[in-house]
What we know:
Blueprint: E1 3-12, H1 14-26, E2 37-44, E3 48-51, H2 57-60, H3 63-69, E4 72-75, E5 83-85, E6 89-97, H4 105-122, E7 128-130, E8 134-137, E9 140-149, E10 154-162, H5 167-173, H6 183-191, H7 197-201, H8 207-222, E11 225-228, H9 233-247, H10 250-253, E12 264-270, E13 273-282, E14 285-293, H11 299-309, H12 316-329, H13 339-353
Parallel strand pairs: 1-2, 1-11, 3-4
Antiparallel strand pairs: 2-6, 3-5, 6-10, 7-8, 8-9, 9-10, 12-13, 13-14
Helix pairs in contact: 1-9, 4-8, 11-12, 12-13
Amino acid sequence: MTSWRYIQEDGVPADYGLATDEYLMNSYSENAAGTEATLRLYTYRDYCALVGRFQNIHAELDLEACRQEGFQYNRRLTGGGAIIMGREQLGLCLATANTFGAANTRELYQLFSTPVIKALEHFGIGAQLRGKNDLEVEGKKIAGLGIHVNPHGAIQFHTSLLVGLDIPLMLKVLKIPMQKIGDKAQVNKVAQRITTVSRALGRTLTTGEVRELVKAQFRAHFGVQLENQPLTAGEKAGIEKLTNERYRNEEWIFHNSPQPDMNGMGLKKTPAGLLRTYVALKGETIKSVLITGDFFGQESLFRQIEVNLKWSALDKELVKRKVHQAFVELGHTTPELSADDVNEAIWRAALGAMKEVQFTYKGSCYFPKK
Length: 370
């Protein structure tokens, strides 16, 4: 029987937790990790606020509230929305080479989320993969998923499974719609969109109980043995190096954050994710464009659009042509995202820069956009 490596940790800091997942993924870049895959089931310290790779951290998190509440904050390598992680949220990382024959990312989501779905079924909770990256129970989100594939084809699959969740505390640090209404109403609004394992069962479960079942379902679904192999001293040294290079580096944590002179923002919800687009103007010239959001791919496309529009005239037809040009240049075709969607988000931001649209915050991992 094939053996996979298993790592279990609890109460890890934000920077170390993320660096460990990336380090484990990178070990499969040359198929030199020694096992077919590594499954890591862990929890973060109370609490860590993590934004997706392509998000603007200032738009997603109240950083001052994070500091006041003692939250650590950081940026994931995987895309998606802002989340909080602590002892009641089970973190899952599967690191492996792409040897499973999956044709695309969607198939990887279905493959790797199946053991989590089966674990929930064991508790009597019927969960399904919905949208681009959520597990839902009766229309309510119970887990978020993410995938990153490095340039060498190694995979990092993430899951944040909500065993429990302190919604009022979450609302203090995540910027979510309607934050100015009463606390009770806001909690009720969020509770209509998400659920937890404990809430779905009507009784409190520990993260440890859920972890053991998820572990067992991975073992059964893939027909493997899971061998407990803690991190070695050499691996910990490599993780510390990566932590310093990336996850303690403000350029990483705050990248995709607009410069102070960016004063227009536009939102556009697409099947590929929420686009949060910033435009800075100098007179009737576009000084810069920045496209952020909870999307999972399209990074090269958006960077090309930003390059195409830099120092362009603020002309609606010209902007439209340059956006379409980037789609053609990169051969980007997907039903989830159109050039018109991107163009609309950019033009809304341009109007915002001209004070015709007010700056607003919308959306998070736990409160999906309509």
